[in-house]
Design brief:
With about 350 residues, this protein is an alpha/beta fold. The chain has two domains: about 140 residues, Rossmann fold (3-Layer(aba) Sandwich), CATH 3.40.50; about 160 residues, Dihydrodipicolinate Reductase, domain 2, CATH 3.30.360. Helix content is about 30%, strand content about 25%. It has a seven-stranded mixed beta sheet with strand order 12-7-10-11-6-13-14. Strands 2-1-3-4-5-15 form a six-stranded parallel beta sheet, with helices on both faces. A hairpin with a 2-residue loop joins strand 10 and strand 11. It starts with a strand and ends in a 19-residue tail after the last strand.
Length: about 350
């Protein structure tokens, strides 16, 4: 049976998700919500730079709520509980990369009520990208006994992130250190990464303090740096590091870190990607230890990343591949461990 899918928002993740839906043998794109009035009324194929698809984008929420569809891939810049609740109440399953993969009872309550009332499901597909900071470390932990520490860490060059307004006004690049450290980014990230840490703590059974310890640091440019927001001048923020830790007593047991740099030159402190380059690292200490480096989710060049960033495509792909399982799941908020193991599908020209 083919599932009818709506894409909510057509930023970088949304565009990649649309392309993923078009490749998936069990999915059909039937609708698309856009934030911009300029995009409303356009064929979705034109919006993503492809052939016409016969699906017209709309900026009217009611158009989406009344549309006959099985699922929505919800990927705006910032999440809205009211929007997701409305989608669920309209009888649509929702898959999203923006959280709700391990919400607190308070965070879950209004969405659980909406999902149960309409007999549909909400599935959060993780973050960093697409569950790299929580599901993947937990999957690797099965290879160890006596686990004492889990770490997931990202090293990325944000010159490949073609969203200048987000980089400057949300993430704080190109501003002063004080404005970056007091800006909205830490709070925005806490919403997802707190869930990642709590999920690992709870699944592994660590006797950790319930209060997660966040921290942030900045690096400034020591010489002009070209970036998607223009030239970052000396003294302006050109690197950001965020860390979240769970402690058992005074011993860290879970640590998640993101290192976001505008290149690895002309920074103070002199942060760099080291000889391994951009990557994701996953570490599980136990008997035995496991250490995994993931390559391929970052582009080979800045120019390539500005055209199509693999990490963003991976985030979207996880959502696309989770649609069928989400639609088949019991009503309510369903996590990674409530759904069956999700996999990708063969490319159309190689599929059965």
């Amino acid at each position: 049976m083919t599932l009818r899918v709506v894409q909510w928002a057509t930023g970088s993740v949304g565009t990649a998700a649309i392309k993923g839906v078009l490749e998936h043998p069990e999915l059909e794109l039937v609708g698309c919500w856009v934030h911009s009035a300029a995009k409303s009324g356009s064929d979705v194929g034109d919006i993503i730079g492809g052939r016409p698809l016969g699906v017209t984008a709309t900026d009217n929420i009611d158009d989406i709520l009344t549309l006959d569809a099985d699922a929505v891939i919800y990927a705006p810049l910032l999440p809205s509980v009211d929007e997701v609740a409305a989608l669920l109440r309209s009888g649509k399953n929702v898959v999203t990369p923006l959280g709700w993969f391990y919400p607190t009872e308070k965070e879950a309550a209004p969405l659980e009520v909406a999902a149960q009332a309409a007999n549909v499901t909400l599935h959060g597909a993780g973050i960093g990208p697409g569950a790299a900071t929580e599901l993947f470390p937990l999957l690797l932990s099965v290879m160890s006994t006596g686990v004492t520490f889990v770490r997931a860490e990202e090293f990325s060059d944000l010159r490949t992130y073609g969203a200048p307004d987000v980089l400057r006004y949300v993430m704080g690049f190109g501003g002063t250190p004080d404005s970056a450290l007091t800006g909205p980014m830490q709070k925005l990230l806490n919403g997802g990464f707190f869930q990642s840490v709590r999920l690992i703590v709870d699944r592994l059974g660590f006797a950790a303090d319930p209060e997660i310890r966040p921290s942030q640091e900045v690096a400034v440019a020591t010489a002009p740096i070209d970036s998607p927001i223009g030239v970052i001048e000396p003294g302006q923020v050109a690197g950001r590091r965020f860390t979240w830790e769970a402690l058992a007593g005074d011993v860290p047991v879970v640590q998640i870190t993101v290192n976001w740099l505008m290149g690895s030159e002309n920074l103070d402190p002199p942060w760099s990607f080291g000889p391994t380059g951009e990557r994701y690292e996953i570490e599980v200490r136990g008997n035995p230890d496991t250490f995994v480096t993931v390559k391929g989710w970052q582009p080979e060049t800045v120019e390539e990343g500005l055209t199509s960033n693999p990490g963003i495509v991976a985030t979207a792909a996880h959502c696309v591949n989770a649609v069928a399982a989400t639609c088949a799941a019991p009503a309510g908020i369903q996590s990674f461990f409530d759904l069956p193991l999700i996999t990708g599908r063969a490319a159309p020209h190689l599929s059965r």
